[in-house]
Amino acid sequence: MLRNKNILLSRWAALIFSSLLLMSLMISSCSKDFTSAKSALQGAPTGTDFWANADAATAARAVNAIYANLRTWNNVAFAAICVENMGSDDAIKGSVATDATYINEYDNFTVDASEGQLDGFWTAQYQNINLCNQVLANVPAISMDASLKSRYEGEAKFIRAWSYFRLVRAFGNIPLIMKLPQTAEELNPKQSTAAEVYAAIDQDLTEAAGLLPATYGAADVGRATKGAALSLHAKVDMYEAGKDASKWQNVLDYTNSVIQSGVYSLYPDYYAMFRIRGENCSESIFEVQCNYVAGNSDISNSQYAQVQGNRETNAGWGFNVPTTDLLNAFEPGDPRLAATIMRAGVTTPDGDVVPPPSAGAPTMYNMKAYVPFTLAVATNQGADQNVRVLRYADVLLMNAEANNELGHAADALTSLEKVRARARAKSANPTVDLPKVTTTDKDQLRKAIYHERRVELAMENDRYFDVIRQGRAATIFGPLGWVAKDSIWPIPQAEIDNSGGILVQNAGW
Question: How far apart (Å, rounded) are the C-alpha atoms in residues 505 and 322?
Answer without folding.
Answer: 32
